[in-house]
Structures are given as structure tokens and as C-alpha cells.
Amino acid sequence: xxxxxxxxxxxxxxxxxxxxxxxxxxxxxxxxxxxxxxxxxxxxxxxxxxxxxxxxxxxxxxxxxxxxxxxxxxxxxxxxxxxxxxxxxxxxxxxxxxxxxxxxxxxxxxxxxxxxxxxxxxxxxxxxxxxxxxxxxxxxxxxxxxxxxxxxxxxxxxxxxxxxxxxxxxxxxxxxxxxxxxxxxxxxxxxxxxxxxxxxxxxxxxxxxxxxxxxxxxxxxxxxxxxxxxxxxxxxxxxxxxxxxxxxxxxxxxxxxxxxxxxxxxxxxxxxxxxxxxxxxxxxxxxxxxxxxxxxxxxxxxxxxxxxxxxxxxxxxxxxxxxxxxxxxxxxxxxxxxxxxxxxxxxxxxxxxxxxxxxxxxxxxxxxxxxxxxxxxxxxxxxxxxxxxxxxxxxxx
Length: 397
What we know:
The chain is of the alpha/beta class. It is 62% helix and 10% strand.
């Protein structure tokens, strides 16, 4: 009984229990806080409306394109934010710039073809949906599924109107017209900036970022240990230079190993091996500078910060921003450096490098700021040195 009492009165027991509760709280928020109920909202989609309408035999003008535009843009239940563009060319340019998950193209002859059911040679009216897979495969597929459902509903409505008009005019359907009557409008889907096979369903940019951050943390700690040992616990200009050089060596080798394994045994498809490797080295080194800035100032206490940043960011890296709560978008996704790394890899893998320089420039500016903070850690070491000298001067002989 005494042993039991002693066991439950130990500080390590209650400290461990408190630590477990804190870990459960942190990790639950980190992994589930933004993913419990991911629902799309305001998915950006472009609409190009070129339909000219058609004059019907009864004198009325049929404008199915205009009707569809009103139904689509006026439907508040659709999780889509529409932007009307002037041409398909403009829409494709915007898709390449990752502005939209998809673009719906309604051609000029859309109403004319829909109304051709009453002609000897009926033609289906066909709209085109350009699905921008590279922006985010899950979100793009969600838009495609929504549009397919919308067109199914509109098709029934249009077919009903055509049949009602023919009935009012006492027109009979020929055998050739019967199949056409059931499906007056169709939606063809074309994938642009496609996600290649063996790309983890479009999640490879996020995975690359996660691997680089974690492996760079190991590099940063190993190099910091060597720095402390070589400089006897102080950061000097020469030790800082050695730290920076060692970091470049570590991330270069690390990136090469990761990419070789990913593209070799694992079969990851990348457009260009060496372009991808160059960006990996650059990104990993920017990560190294960020980590080094924290470690040089607060030492091993930086480790929990670096790990927690990873845990909170990791679950949201591959999710479309429109699927996340506003709090996550504002307080996490808007400032974490990982998002720029993910977008950089995305431009390389799926967009032929369009917009790549912008992402690299942003990462470079973040790395430059981190380097300045690292360099300022010399002042901290200098202050400690001055304090030590003063103590030694005041010591009694």
C-alpha cells in the first residue's frame, strides 16, 4: 500500500499526466482542427458566355446560355464563386496562372444546336468544362462533379421545354429525334495542366515540402551541435560561415537522395529531374536558414517550435484553401513558408514552370530575412563575451 501511495505521489507521474494532456490537446487541434468537416466554399470558376441565342419558329428567342448563366451565378447553394471572362483564350491563360479550378465555356451556337431538335438533322448543344487539375486535383474534381449534376438538371428542363413546344405545334418526333430529345445539352470535360500518374493524386508537392522540412531539421540540429563543440559554445563569424557552408552541403546531398528515391524506386513522375533538384536544394536551404535563425538564438528550445509548426501545417498543405475554415486560412495558411514551397513544386510539376520565379523569389526573401536574424546572433555571442570579460576583471586576485 505504501508503494502505491508513493507511486501516485511522485512528481514524474503527475507531470507525465499533465504532459500527456497537453500533447493530446496540441495534436488533436493540429491534425483535426482544420479537417473535421472540410466543406468547399467559394471555389473560383470562370465562365465564358458566347451563346448568341436563336429565333424560334413561333417568333420567340431562345437563349439557353443566358438562362444557364442566371441559374449558375444566381444559385447561392453552389459552393462556387463565378467570374465572367470574355474568351476561351483568356480563360486558359487564367487557368495557367492558377486563378481558377475550372472554366465553363458556352459556345456561340449553343442555343441554336439545342433548338435543332425540331429540324430534320438535330444536333446536341455541347458546352465545355476545362478542369484545372494542377491547381488542386480534389477541388477541380469537385467542380467537375458539381457541373455534371447541374447540367443533368438543366438538360431535363431544356428537353422538357423543347418537347412542350413541339407538342403545342402538334409536331411528332421521328425515330432519329427520340434519342436526341432526351439529351439536348451535354458537357464535355477537358483536363488542363493535368496531374500525371504516380504523383500521389496531385499531393506530391506537399509531400516533398514535408520531407524537406523534417530532414532539414535533423541537418540543422547536427550542424548546430558541431558548431557549439567547435566554438566552445559561442557563435563566431567563422563558425557561422562554417554553419552556412555545412548547411548547403547537407541539403544538397539530402535533396539528391530524396529525389533519387522518389523518381527511382517509387516512380514519381517529374518533368525535369535537375530543375526539380535545383528547386529542392534552394527550398531546403531556405528552410535551413529559417531553422538556423531560431536555433542560433534560443538553442534546443527551437525544436518544439519547429516540430509544432510542422504538425499544425502538415494536414492543410494538400487541401484547397476553400475547403478550410477561415481561421485556418487567416492564422496559418496565409503566413507559413510551406505554402510557397508547395506552390513552387506545383508550378514545376503541373504548370510547366509558369509562375515559378514568383514563388522562388518569395522563398528567397524569407530566407534572406532568416539569414539576417542568424547573423544578428553574433551580437548575442558578443554580448556574452563582454559580460564574461567584465566579470573576470572584477574578480579578486
